[in-house]
Design brief:
Blueprint lengths: L1 H9 L5 H13 L3 E5 L6 E13 L2 E10 L2 H17 L20 H14 L12 H12 L13 E2 L7 E2 L1 H20 L2
Antiparallel strand pairs: 1-2, 2-3, 4-5
Helix pairs in contact: 4-6
Length: 191
Amino acid sequence: TEDEADQLKSKGMLTLKSTSALISAIMLMPQGVTDVTHDDKVVLASSNCGSIRINGDNLEMGCLTRACKAYYSEQTVAAISRMAHILGGEAVRRNSYPGWEYVRGSAMQSAYSEACKTVFGKEPSFYTIHAGLECGVIAYNIAERGGKADIIAIGPNMRLVHSPNEYMEISSLDRLMQVSVRLLETLGTEK
């Protein structure tokens, strides 16, 4: 009854209807990888629910959606919006991250490859991974100002990232610093 619902609400508890909607939202929410390339080698988009909270009369779920292209992100956001609508709620987009698409054979990639050959005597391996959030933000901000960014993502060898057991191979940081210095020296002499 309405009185029972008010009593539950006053105690900070969910009604049966609200509980059912929450469980449905958790079950229907796009989680993890949502799109991959046709060969299943590259993640194109992912989404995860990072928080669930009661805010006054509202039940709020915070989700993070990432993609290499805006199209894939928009598809996931549309699925979340539709799910919210079906369950009697609404989806509100507060923040988003711009995509960053891997560009094979870019000038920056070539410069980095040359720096690696100079420092280590061999070419690096290039591949795309579902990361590089900062690269998308930087590229987007440069494009907003009328520029174009040629960006690659490099870093030390890290394992078990975003877990309590995350670690970095210190020797790989030293190698990264050596090649970064060479790359900056090379870029600094280009006209």
